[in-house]
Amino acid sequence: MRHLLNSIFALFLLLTAALAQAGALDAISTGDASAGVKEALAKGADYAVASLGKDGGFMGNSKVKIPLPGYLQKAEKGLRMFGMGKQADQLIETMNHAAEDAVAEAKPILVESIKKMSVQDAKGILTGGEGSVTQYFKRTSSTQLGEKFMPIVKASTSKLKLADKYNQFAGKAASSGLIDQKDADLDGYVTQKAMDGLFLMIAEEEQKLRSNPVGAGSDLLKKVFGAL
To answer: I need a labelling partner for 142 at 20 to 30 A (CA). Which of 46, 101, 182, 208 fits?
Structure first.
């Protein structure tokens, strides 16, 4: 009986909290809500591009540093034992610097994504919980980011003849099931990792905003995200 009463009381608290949140959101005008979400999106975009789109942005950040792909990553120790450590390091550095160069060009695409945000999108972001800002960017800009990043990555890796050797080796490894097919092309691999890193940094900034809206440095962000 006591367990049942405790469960009912817990449910009551959850419902009360949900109603209070809904009331707080209802008190915010549609204009303020949309403007607040746009500011949050811009804050996440600024943080991600500034963090990663610079020398050492990927290479110096263990959260996003791009490792050798698949099978090569597992074989890295062996490569170094056979005197190929320099080539492995060169490939890793090239991949990470290519990602840094690519992300540095991401801002216009993210800004355009923010401009296109609808009132319905804003509502979905506010009520979508953790990760909804990041998911919005993924949904609305991934294709454009991939198209923008790929030629920048190619320009970097083309300077390294080792990249061609990787593609030849990786193609055979993929056909044998040793690595994923999507990792068989170095440029495609780096482009995807650059996007993954970008979205990870946006997610970090979103998490900080949601957990501490008072510290967001903006009255509008405090008002809108503080109501969640």
So the answer is: 208
CA 216/CA 56 separation, integer angstroms: 26
Q: What is the DSSP letter of 69?
A: P
The DSSP code for 214 is G
Ramachandran angles phi, psi of 218, nearest 5°: -145, 130
**Residues shown for the chain:** 228
Which residue from 208, 216, 200, 205 is spatially nearest to 103, judged by alpha carbons? 200
Res. 169 pLDDT band, cuts 50 70 90: low
Contact 206, 133 (CB under 8 A): yes
How far apart (Å, rounded) are the C-alpha atoms in residues 197 and 92? 15
Top-confidence residue, 17 or 100? 100
Cβ atoms of 117 and 38 within 8 Å: the answer is yes
Across the chain, mean pLDDT equals 75
Q: Name which of 110, 107, 108 is nearest 133 in CA terms.
A: 110
The total number of structural domains in the chain stands at 1
Least confident of 65-79, 83-97, 173-187: 173-187
pLDDT above 70: residue 174 = no
Q: Give residue 40's domain range.
A: 2-225
Long-range contacts of residues 142-148, Cβ cutoff 8 Å, at least 24 apart = 142/195, 144/109, 144/112, 144/113, 145/106, 145/109, 145/195, 145/198, 146/191, 146/192, 146/195, 148/102, 148/105, 148/106, 148/109
Secondary structure, 3-state, 36-68: HHHHHHHHHHHHHHHHHCCCCCCCCCCCCCCCC
